[in-house]
Structure formats: structure tokens, C-alpha cells
Fold each of these.
Amino acid sequence: MLNLKEVKKYYEDLGGHGFDHVVRVHRMAMKIAKKEKADLKVVDAASWLHDIARAQEDLKGRKGLCHASEGAKVAKKILKNLNFSEKKIDNIVHCIAVHRYSKGLKAETKEAKILQDADRLDALGAICIARVFMFNGLKKLPLYIPERKPEEHYHGQETTAINHFYEKILKIKPENFHTALAKKIAKKRYDYIKEFLKKFKDEWEGKDA
């Protein structure tokens, strides 16, 4: 079994991708896994470890490092010291290696599809909105600049908070999730963000008066 106290150390000082994110992804992944009759041991370990190399990627001088592929390597070393079969280790490592949304990698196992779904669900809805504004606040980035139109392609979150929703978040379409439960939840969360953006702009322009 994983030692969560030890695992938690990998997620210190990560802001929007800290241990609270991992807890939410784990909770959602296990809920989906039970419904999909997936390997719960694989989903459990993969979801706890999926962002284990995030801190390495965020360190200065390591911007070229991908936390998903690096995390898969770190996880493999951890799992080899625990009571996991080679087959389960291979599946867990695959789940972690392909979970990252921006890489667009294909999930080849049921468990990998579930981790992708759970991780991407945390990028939608009310918590997503909170995370976007927390990031922009920490980085002292603008809230909204009406004349600055969203970029067509995502180039990183160094933009206005509102533009980030259009450049990345709203491209996480509900129909692109794998499982039925995730699609249902994603639709509700996606619609919530669209409604928020409409209300935000209405208030900004005084149209709600």
C-alpha cells in the first residue's frame, strides 16, 4: 500500500496542482472506477501518483520536463518497492504517462481513460474557476482586458484570467470524455463555466443593471 504521508510530500507548494487537487482527482477516479468495474488498485495508485513530478516541472530550469512522463518513471520506482505485480505496475505507469490533457496522448486501458476523465473534470466547474483566479492572483496577472482577445491556440496560462477560459478550459469538451459518468458531470461543469463567463461580462459592462 502507498504511504500517503510520503506521497503528500511531492505535492507541497504546488498551488492549483497541490495535494487538494490530487485528493479530488482520486475521489472522482474511484467513483468512476467502481461504476466502470475497473481495477480499483490500479486507479487508486495512479490517481494518488499522477502529478508526483509536477514540482520538478515547475522548477526553474526544468521547463522542458513533462511531469506526466517523468512522474511515470518516479512512480515505477516507488511501486517496485511495494506489493504490486508487474502487470499492475505497467498499467499504473501507463495511466500516469498519458493523463496530461495538453499532450493529447491516447489512453490504452480502461484505468487510464478513467484517470484522464477524473483529472480533466477538475479542470471544469466551480473549482476550476477558483483555481484560475488563484493562479492569476499569485502571478499578478490581469483579471480581464476587454481589448485583448483570446489567442486561438493555448500558449500557457500567462494571460488574463478570462482569456484562459477561452484559450484552454472551454476546449475541454464534455463529448471528449471517455466514460458515461464523466461525460454527464463534465456537461454540468462546462455549462456552469459558460454561464459564469456570461454573467461576468454582463456585470463588467453594466448590462445587469
Note: The domain at 123-209 is CATH 1.20.58.1910 (Methane Monooxygenase Hydroxylase; Chain G, domain 1).
Amino acid sequence: MAIMKNNNPTIERGPYRPPSEAASLLIRTTRNCPWNKCEFCPAFKGERFELRDVLDIKKDIQNIRKVVDKIKEISRKLGQETKVTGEVLNYLYQHSWEGNYPEIALWLFGGENSVFLQDADSLIMKTDDLVEVITCLKEKLPGVKRITSYGRSKTICKKSLEDLRLIQQAGLSRIHIGLETGYDSLLAYMQKGATARDHIESGRRVKEAGISLSEYVLLGLGGKEMGKKHAIETAKVLNRIDPDYIRARTLMVRKNTPLYHKMEKGEFVPLSEDEIIEEERELIENLDNIGSYFVSDHVRNLLGEVEGDISRDKDKMLSIIDRYRDLSPEDKLNFRLGRRANVYQRLDDFFDPSLYKKVEAMMLRIGPGEPENVERVITALMARVS
């Protein structure tokens, strides 16, 4: 059975999606970011924002449907009853399956449940256009149960509640919003293009429309000068929104950002990892009377296991942070190196003697009694993570 590799339908794909959408099929509705001025953000710098033509987006969806049908036909011929099994994946890879097909095959293998609309702000589309795209998506891929997108708070503030309800009824399940901070002075300093009031209004409107809401917080964004206010004011805003998910990210200042130039000039002084942990503790401690689920689902976060329902698991999360805080400076350095080198996945791993010795040997190779060298290695390891 031969696979035709010529005349494969093209499907446009953007470069980014949230970690929580790793299993989602990616459909590009816009190109790049309509704001693109955030001082800390390296994404889309130097790129022009464009709205894709609705007909082009629908053509992509139709092409995805063609690929799905082709893969399922191959599955049937392999005796797998149109199911995308490991045997089907192996066959496709052995026969040099091209283009976006491997991603679509993996999506089918994972259950074809979710789709993420790219790039940075699909909500900026006209409501009728977005509804048309989502409706087409649901018609062509009826197995999809969840459709999600990034959205800017300022953009959502311009949508009426009626518009958001139309989008929800069409099938949009969740919106990911980059809150980053609830501190107005820091929002202005970072050129976020939104205020705490904008974040509260947009978040509440999304929830009222019946759409699941993820709000992203950027740990370390306040630096030495505004770190404490960043944590406290962000908690205040989140308490007023009560999002479904609060997703923590740790700041990494990239070279191609305006914030990096501020850091070089000494205008922005970043926090150490231990100080970021203190900031995270301050944030969680000030979250109150909400049902949000706190998620630390990015590898750059030092304590990825700090996760749970704020209404039930707050003390447990704080206790994990406190266990780290109680380590000696030498053990903290060992854990941080091991975490960044993927030896430790959780704080509990630090107490495994074999893993501890492995990291200890790494530290000896870097240079005994030279924490500055270890810090440089840790920074280099973190810089490799996107």
C-alpha cells in the first residue's frame, strides 16, 4: 500500500501554543500579535500582525479533514478499523509522511479531543468571522470536544457579553489570558497595554459568558523594585476575577527584548530563584475565597508540584514551598542545578540519595566551592528552555 506524497494539502501553522495545549491540534486564525509591545516578551518581535482571511482558515480546516480521512483510510487498510494506533503511526513515519501530517496523526492518536486557535489573540477577529470559523471547525471535525484560544484583556473588553456568548455557543471552550501582573505601575512599566481594571473586567466577562478562563501570572516580573507589590496586587486582581485556572510562569529575560536592554543598563534588576519562590509564596498566601486551580505547568518553574485548588490545597502548596525554604543554601543550589538539569522533577527527588549524589558529582565537575560557576550553568540551562 503506497502513500501519495505529491499534492499534499498545505495547512498553515503558527509557532506558539500554551503548554497545556500540547495535545491540541493547531489552527492559525491570525498571524503574530496585534499589540507586540510587552517589554518582557520575545515572541513575534519584528513581525507584523495580520488577520487571516476567513476563507483561507476554512480551507485549512477542510484540508485537515482531508488528511484525517486519508489517515483513517490507511488505518482501515491496515486492519485497524480507522483507529489511529501505534501500528498506524509507525507505518506513516516509515513511509516519510510529510508536512503537518505527523502532527495530525499524533492528534488523532491522542483522541482528537482539542483544538487551539493561533496566534496571540484570536478574539480580535470580528465576532461573526470567529463564529464562522468555529462553526466550520465543529462541522468538519465533529469529534472535537474543546476549542481554546489566547485573548488579550483589552481586546476582550471591546467584546460585548452578547458577542462572547455567541462565540461560546459556537464552541469556544476556553480563553487563555496573559494577566502577568495585577499591579498597575508594573503593567505600565512593562508596556502591557492593559490595566488591572481591564483584566478584572475582561476576566469576569469571559466567565459570565460561560467560557473557561485561564489567567497567566509571570513570577519575577516585578524584579527587585516591584516584586512584593507585584505578588500582592496580582492576588487582589485574581481574587476579584476568580478564574478557573491560574497558571504560573517564571520570567526569563531574553536578549531580543526591551527588558533585556533595561536589565543591561541596571534599570531592571531581576530576582534570584530563591526570591522568586518568596514572591510565589506571597502570591498564593494572598489568594483567598476563590475556587481557582493553581497550575505550575511550565518547566522553567522551580517547584512544578506547587499545584492545586486554592480553596482546598492552599496549605499544601505553601508547605511545599516552605520545605524548599528550609533547605540549607548548599542544598538549595544542589536542587536548583538538579532541577534545571532534569535530574530532579520534584522536590521529593532531592531526598533520593542516588539522585543527590548524581547532582553532587555534577557540582564537583563544575568546580568545588564555586557557587558562582554553578549559577552560570543554571542560567545557561534555563536559557535553553523556550
Note: The first helix runs from residue 54 to 77.
